[in-house]
Design goal:
Strand 13, helix 8 and strand 14 form a beta-alpha-beta unit. The strands form three sheets. Strands 3, 4, 5, 8, 9, 16 and 17 form a seven-stranded mixed beta sheet that branches. 48% of the residues are buried. The chain has 362 residues and is of the alpha/beta class. It contains eleven helices and 17 strands. It has two domains: 198 residues, Medium-chain alcohol dehydrogenases, catalytic domain (Quinone Oxidoreductase, Chain A, domain 1, Alpha-Beta Complex), CATH 3.90.180; 136 residues, NAD(P)-binding Rossmann-like Domain (Rossmann fold, 3-Layer(aba) Sandwich), CATH 3.40.50. Helix content is 26%, strand content 26%.
Length: 362
């Protein structure tokens, strides 16, 4: 079928709104009419080749929408269901078999290869293949093909266009706290970087009962929003000595690095108490290195990498929807809506920090 999609044809290029052809649906696939799709940092770093992908490409991996068609073997959803599309894991490696898909041995290929597992494309233009199937969706489009396994059914009584970021950014930040760091009530945490991931982490820290929640970001509006969402303190790293300020009271039990900047990662580790745990979620260019004081680790600090909030989407995303329904995860405070054909403006505003989470509506 024909659909509209936003294609990028070269490194750091503009998004071109154009008509493309979707491949025929396979037995284990789902066709989704996209209602909303978040603009994520990962979309932009792939466009800019910090992660290597081929062009032309259709990105988008925080899609939500309505199931239009299902393949013959699909049982998880049916036409008319509301769904969030998320990342995909292979389902058969040791990590997947033990129920931890975020540590899937094949996760890069499953989400960044630009084609199905057998190499076949999901999108063509003019008879030529397009690098698509991004996170098994490529949802910067009016319609997207997803796999049954990365399609999560959600209730119909919540605003569907708001839910796409639950598939990546929100589940990454909230899940890093709830699923991975697991701070006890009364503990302390510092979140470095207050975009949608960091602010989701702030909300999650408040939900689990952290009593000291520190937000670190150079953007004054984001620091203010962090306080509104549960932060008890906020520091501007351009004027405050963040590590010194945090260590004056003994450091924090947990920290979360969301910026992908090596010097900020070092601050996040150096802000820890002993013992303390720093979670790394910032997606840096391949090959990025960081320097740490070995003694700071030796005396009991821990650094862990966290992908997609260490979440099992079929379990975690419905929980996030319920928290939103109860008013305890106010997603609407993060969001600015754009039309799909305003994607270049949405990308610029996201990169410039003018908006926290841009959501495109086809």
């Amino acid at each position: 079928m024909q659909t509209t999609a936003a294609i990028v044809r070269e490194k750091a290029g503009k998004f071109e709104m154009t008509q493309v052809e979707l491949a025929d649906l396979r037995a284990d696939e789902v066709l989704v009419r996209v209602v909303g799709v978040g603009v994520c940092h990962t979309d932009l770093i792939c466009r800019d080749q910090l992660y290597p992908v081929s062009f032309p490409a259709v990105f988008g991996h925080e899609g939500s929408g309505v199931v239009d068609q299902v393949g013959s073997r699909v049982t998880k959803v049916q036409p008319g269901d509301h769904v969030v599309m998320t990342y995909r894991a292979c389902g058969h490696c040791p990590a997947c078999k033990r129920g931890d898909p975020t540590r899937c041995a094949n996760i890069f290929g499953c989400n960044f290869a630009g084609a199905r597992g057998d190499g076949s494309p999901t999108i063509h233009q003019g008879g030529l293949p397009v690098h698509a199937n991004f996170f098994n969706q490529s949802s910067f489009a009016a319609y997207a093909i997803a796999h049954e396994s990365n399609t999560v059914k959600v209730d119909k009584d919540v605003p569907l266009e708001l839910l796409g970021p639950l598939g990546c950014g929100v589940q990454t930040g909230a899940g890093a706290v709830i699923n991975s760091l697991k701070p006890a009530a009364g503990s302390s945490i510092a979140v470095f970087g207050c975009g949608s991931v960091g602010l989701s982490a702030v909300m999650a820290a408040a939900l689990v009962g952290c009593t000291r929640i520190i937000a670190v970001d150079p953007n004054a509006q984001r620091r203010a929003l962090a306080r509104e969402l549960g932060a008890t303190e906020a520091f501007d790293p351009t004027s405050d000595n963040v590590v010194e300020a945090i260590q004056k009271s003994g450091g924090v039990d947990y920290s979360l690095e969301c910026t992908a900047i090596p010097s900020v990662f070092r601050q996040a580790v150096d802000s820890l108490a002993v013992p303390g745990v720093c979670g790394l979620v910032g997606a840096a260019p391949l090959g990025t290195e960081v320097t740490l004081d070995m003694n700071s680790i030796m005396f009991g600090r821990t650094v862990i990498g966290i992908i997609e909030g260490q979440s099992v989407p079929d379990v975690f995303i419905p929980k996030l929807v319920e928290l939103y329904r109860q008013g305890r995860l106010p997603l609407e405070k993060l969001v600015t809506f754009y039309r799909l054909d305003e994607i270049d403006q949405a990308a610029r505003d996201s990169a410039d920090g003018k908006v926290v989470k841009a959501i495109l509506r086809p």
